[in-house]
Each structure stands twice: as C-alpha cells, then as structure tokens.
Amino acid sequence: MTATSLQRDAQPSIDFTTSPGRRRRDQSARWVFRSGAVATLLVTILIIFTLVFDAWEYLSKLADTEDGLGALTEIGWFPRRGLYDIGTLVVGTFIVTGIAMLVAVPLGLGAAIYLAEYARPGVRRVVKPVIEVLAGIPSVVLGYFAISFINPELVVRIFSGANKAFTLAAAGVGVGILTIPIIASVAEDALRAVPLSLREASYGLGAERMQTTFRVVFPAAISGIVASLILGISRAIGETMVVAIAAGAVGGGLFRLTPLEPGQTMTAAMAALGFGSDQVAGDNLAFQSLYFIGLLLFIMTLLLNVLSDWLVNRVREVY
C-alpha cells in the first residue's frame, strides 16, 4: 500500500448530515413563511368575495327600485338623492389620472435619466433621497397645497374660466407630484441595470452621451420604464385625499368633461361614503354603493397589472 493511500485512509470521514436542531429550525421557518403566504391569499380571497357579494346585492336592490339600473346613468353622482351615475366617477378618475401623468411622466423620467446617466455620484447621493422624500409627504398636506397654491396661482391664472376654489386640474397636478418619485425611482433602477458594456460600445462607435442615452440605454431599459409608468398610473388612480380635498365635490358631482370645474373620482366618492354620513342620512343604498365602486377599482387595477406583465414580457431585453 502506497504512502498516499495510507494518508487517505487515515483522514477522518466528514459527516454532512444536518443536525436535528437545525432541521427543526428550518422546518419552523418554513411553516412560518408558508402560513404568512396562505394568510395573505385568504385575506385577498375574502376581500374579493366581500366586494363581489355586496356589489351584487347593491345591484339587485337597485334593480328593484323605481328607476332601476337606470340610476347608474343619471345626471351625476349624488348618492344622498339616489343618483349613482358611474360615468361621472369614471370620467373624473380618468381626467385626474391623465393630468397627473402629464405632470409625472416628463418630470419622473427626466429625473431618472439625469440620475442614471448624467449626475455625478455625489450629486446622485443627494438628489435621489430628495426626490424620494416627495413620496413621504402626507397626501392631506398636498391636497391643501393644491387648493391654496396650485389652483389659484397656476390653474386660474392660466385658464381664466376655471373655478376659483376647486378643480379637477388642481387635483390632477397634486396627484402628479405624488407620482413623480415612483416613476423616477423605478425608471432610474431600470436604466442603471443596463450593462456598462452597451454604453462603452456606443461611445466606441463615436456616439455622444445623448445619443447613447436615448438610442441605446433607454431602449434597453424599456421594460422597466414601462413598468414604472404602469405603476404610476395605478398610484394616480388609487390616490384619495388629494382628490377629495382639491376636487371639491365631496357630496357628489355633475357629469362634466372639463377639468376646470369641481368633480368627483372613484376613490374620493368611496372616502365620502366611508365617513358614514350617507349611511345614516341619505338614500338607503348609498353606503352599499361603496362596494360596487370598490369592485370597479379592483377590476381596473387587475387589468392594469395584467397589461403591465404583458407589456414587460413583450418588450423585455435580456443581456
């Protein structure tokens, strides 16, 4: 027997078996995380079931009234009077969301491009937290800022025919300010995830920084940018307090297509109904209509998420 084989036989065998205590800890952690996942799924199912059940009950009772389902297409949204024009809320929501994206998309993407491609590391460390601080501003404060500054100093001065107290335009600008940090943060992460080799190859071919940014980096990060825009739209649709304060139509609103007058959105209508006043003094179906609006919001958010996944998978680039 050679010396090498004797040394190999003399080495002690290593036991790779996991200790019983470690196995118990791993199993406990697995059950804790599994319980959390199952609980989240159950809560989601219960919420969906509640929305569907109460929304169906609301529509069934509304169909038995004198006006029937025609109350869903009245002159406006006045739940205390039994007028439930859903079009008023949907149009108001789209107007506010559209104005918010007109504000948030150029500013958010501009900030993201600057931080990812132009800013020095020291400047980035200062500017990015400042932008993200906007997301921490209470929406109530921004709502009062909208009625004290945005509407009188911006909207009324630019559009002379605008309402001097409350407008959907002021609410849209306020929601847009809240949406900027989300778009900027997600888009900046997507841009910085593009491999440096693509930038170096572009510069090696003689391209300038702007050409590299918009013809190489931006298309390469388009999936993350699309995701940031969809996330911003979802944030704008779901904003409540800014619209409830700045739009001005807390108790209801007429059907209007102009952003220069007070209006109502789906989330603001839910906030007004959730206060409880409509449940005590008003039409007996007013409070139940809250669940119908919530179901519509849920469907809109679900469709946005499905659209986001489809777009991201369609335009994603793998490097």
What does this entry show, briefly?
Helix content is 71%, strand content 2%. With 319 residues, the chain is mostly helical. α2 crosses α13 and α5 (139-158) crosses α6 (168-192).
Instruction: Give the percentage of residues in beta strands.
Output: under 5%
Assigned CATH superfamily: MetI-like
Query: What's the CATH class label?
Result: Mainly Alpha
What is the name of the CATH architecture? Orthogonal Bundle
Strand order of the largest sheet: 2-1-3
- Quote the CATH topology: MetI-like fold
Low-confidence stretches: none
The H/E string reads HHEEHHHHHHHHEHHH
Commentary on this structure:
Helices cover 71% and strands 2% of the residues. The protein is mostly helical and 319 residues long. The protein has a single domain, classed as MetI-like fold, CATH 1.10.3720.10. Strands 2-1-3 form a three-stranded antiparallel sheet. α4 runs antiparallel to α6 and α6 packs antiparallel against α9. The two termini are 54 Å apart.
